[in-house]
Amino acid sequence: MTAVTSAPRTERIPNQGRPAQRPARRFKVAAWHIVLVLMVLVLLYPVAWLVSASFKSSGEIFTSTQFWPQEWTPGNYTQALEGAGSLTFWQLLANSLILSILTVIGNVFACTLAGYALARLRFRLQRPFFAFTIITLMLPMHVILIPQYIIFQQLGLIGTFLPLVLPKFLGTEAFFVFLVVQFVRGIPRELDEAATVDGAGPYRTFFSVILPLLQPALITTAIFSFIWSWNDFFGQLIFLNNPSTYTVQLGLRLFIDQSSTSSYGAMFAMSVLALLPVLLFFLVFQRYLVEGVATSGLKG
Fold first, then answer.
1. What is the CATH number of the domain that holds 242?
2. Is 180 helix (H, G, I), strand (E, B) or coil?
C-alpha cells in the first residue's frame, strides 16, 4: 500500500493580491473631501449669517461689515415671540402647522388613490389621463393661479385655508401621483391576482395588499408636502387676506413697515424660529426620506 501524502498547506497572506493604496489615490480622496466640506460651508453660510443677524440691531445689520454682532441683541427673539400687531408667534405657528398638516393629509390620501388607479386599474382613457397628469408638471403655477382665484372668490372661500387645502384632496399634485404610480408598478401583480382569487375587490386589494407596501412612497410624499407647504409664501399671500389665518411666512412681512421703522432684527429672529420645525421634521424623517427615494420611481 502506498502512503497518501497530503500537499503542504500554505498560509494565506492577508491582502495578498490586493494592490496597496497609492498615495495619489489617498490625495484624490482627501481632495474630494475638502471640496465637499467647502461646498457645505458655502451652502450653510446664508443660514449662519441669518443666525448672526438675528442677534444684531436693525441699524447694525446694514451698516456693520463684521460677521458677528458688535453688540448682542437677544431681545430680538423676545420681540419675535410677541409677534407683530395683534398676532403672536404662537398663533402664526399654529396656523402654519394646521395648513401644513392638512396639506400632508390631502396629498397622501388623494395622490395615493389616484396613483393606484392609474397604475393598476383598467378603464377607458387611462393612458391619456396619466399623460395629462404628467403634462401638468410643466405648467407654471401662475398659469392656473388666476382661474383658481376667480373660482374660490365666487365660492366665498378667499381668506380661509380651503383654497390652499382643498385642491390637495383632489389629487392635483402630479409629482406625488407620478411617485405613487412608479412605486405601485414595482409591486408584483401576482399579489393582486392572489387577492382577487380570494374574493377581494379593488378597494379591498388596495387597503389590504397595496397600501401596506406603499410606506416608503407615503413617507416621501408626507415629507415633501410638509416642507413645500411650510415654505410656501406666494400662494398664502394670494389666498390668505384675513389676519387671523396668517402663517409664519406672512407674519415675517408684518415686521417691515414702509411708512415707519422696520424691525429687521426681530424679522430675522422669527426667520430662525421658523426654520426649526422644518429642520426637526427633516432630521426625524431623514432616514425614511432616503429609503423612499431609493425605492421609488425617483431613482435612475
1. 1.10.3720.10
2. helix
